[in-house]
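Quarterly update from the structural biology core.
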Amino acid sequence: MTDRLPALSLLRWSAMRFLAVMLLIICLAEAGVMFVSPLFVPKDAPAWVAAVANVTVLAFVSAPILWWVAIRPLKRIALYERNLSTSVLRTIVDAVMVIDEQGVILSCNPANESMFGYAGETLKGMNISVLIPRDQDGQEIFTDQALSQPGVLLDLKQEIAAVRVDGSSFPAELTVSPIRLHGKRLFVAVVSDLSRRRLAERRYRSILEGTARTTGGDFFAALVERLADAFLAEHAFVSVVNPESPLRAGTLAFYSNGAQVESVEYDLEGTPCKDAFEGNVCFYAQGVADRYPQDAMLRELGIEGYLGVALIDGAGNWIGILGVMTNSPMPSHEDNAAILSVFAGRAVAEIERLRESEARQTAELELRQTMEELIDERERTKLYMSELEIANSEMKQNASELAAAKEAAEAATEAKSAFLANMSHEIRTPMTSILGYSDLLLEDGNIQHAPDRRVEAINTIRRNGNHLLKIINDILDLSKIEAGKFAIEKIDCNPLEILAEIEESMQARAEAKGIGLAIKLDGPLPVCIQTDPTRLRQILINLVGNAIKFTDLGSVEVVTRITQSEATHRLVIDVVDSGIGISQPHCQRLFEPFQQADSSMSRRFGGTGLGLVISKRFAELLGGDISVVSEVGIGSTFTLVLDVGSLEGVQFQDKLCPKREAKPASSSHGALTQALSGCHLLLVEDGPDNQRLIDFLLRKAGAEVTIAENGLIGRDLAREAVSEDRPFDVILMDMQMPVMDGYTATQELRDQGYTGPILALTAHAMAQDHQKCLEAGCNDCLTKPIDRPVLIETIQALAARSPIATRND
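Predicted structure, tokenized:
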């Protein structure tokens, strides 16, 4: 059989490779004949001598190549496949034999020894009838038919009774296939042992027949009885774990020595059942009672062998054990655990069915009780149904009205936001010219020699312009707070510095009214707290400003202290004045928008009534509040309380920070005059008034200015300057313009690769408007009306980063 392997390997030999080898041999042979033969054969030698020489050279050249390239690899392949076939035959569990036409065994694999009991090569030379007697019904006919069938025979199969060396017989399956080896007709016989399969089938049949038609308690009794019979065991049991005590179990059925015994409860600890739980299967062929000396039942019953499997429900939980026990050593069989596991699954299904049945009965009982209660309630429910229907109808109507109101409120909020944004833009745009030209009038020419009425008129314009700007800012702040869009930024700041700034900025106003202003510390204050310094300043300016405004005699005191409740620290600031005071009913309206103590206050002192409202909302956003205590004719005390975060490791100080020295105005103006010297700027602005104003301010600061009336012209001028290698240091871009707005112009410049600084100038003061400018590609954004020092400082900072500045450096 193995002699055919080299031929099979030769069939797998590549035709292209073989042709290549032959071509190589021919080439080398021709080279040998052309170059080697003339060295040994004289030119005048006979033709037959030259032919012999050529043949000799060809043989010497081609023989080693054929050996190395063709014959040697084929021999290695044949040896490898022969070894592989031998290894495969050794691993086959069925008995394989090669016999001749007379039934004589020529060779066999090692499985014959384990199946029939004959040692080593003993079977060789014996007749197969020793293993498969012919005296059984049908067996002789099958064997003769297999050995005498002419031609090609394909796999004859038959179940037979085979005989071991000790004379015992066992069921088997015989398969006979013909082969040809060296021209001889031989046969391959394969014998498969069916005894284990028959035993498993008998066990399955026995257990199934005994449990197929039973359920409940009868099922478990029949199951353990059949298990004991199938495994030839004296004892069989099925147990379930106690749900309230997982380390205890109780038997549902226990078959022992041919009879059912009463259910027992036992501890799992120290028993083989515990091991079955932990490993799913537990098997001991013998000596199980000695392994578990704590288990008294094993000793009482004289248990020797044990096989148990865990019962696992569909959720993967251990719920019990199914097992068999013997009083003598338990035979080891590879199918034992598998068979027991199959019926463990059947037991689990029955346990779950019983539990579901009990749960269903309990649920039915509870349902019955509930139904009786529902029947009692049904009559009362009918009485409420009409009322519920009426209430439901009203609720639907209310829900519809609420939805409509919500939509209307959202639309109103959007309309208000749009109105405020447009109002801010339309007021801030001319305000740029009003305040800007007022500043120019105060600086242009020899203002010291101007008539007092003219100077007072200019200051009046500036004062009222700033007042109008403050009103606009207050309205925008209140709108953002009410819409929930106001952002608070809590950072580290020094309250002592803020208090010193308030004292410095408000002192002039107090002195103008002839009253005193004092900042007092009621104990040391931390030098660092967590809050929003900008909003804290705004709150204090409103509170102190109001106190000064409503006080004609006496003084205003700002008393500050730190309080602690449990682990929370709070900054408390009292603004105490000796002013006109407020009645209690009017105190309750102070924190409502556009409200003052009474209408006479507005006529006498002015104001919109927004300052306290905004201050209180800011305080709430900062984790605090503002309250007021007042008495008419005596004065008022406004108390600000703020959460300041953790003060662990923070230093405290008992005096205000020193005042900062103010810069002389003359030096400041001189610095602004030279600040933008050498800068080439592009101003994109559609308003003629603002064009002239901003152009004048920039040129006065030393800059060279080019003006564009809209975004389209500005975009083209910027691109032209870049193409001529003289780009602008900074582009000042108004964002709201005809033809092409600043957003579009900036975006197109950035899309075309423009990298120079672009400063947005916008009359829109909302935070989202500033963000929109940055998203369009602007480097920074300033809100109109323009603050000249801020404008020039911002241009200086941007120009320092421009491509021209970088190139010059």
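The first strand starts at residue 95 and ends at 99.
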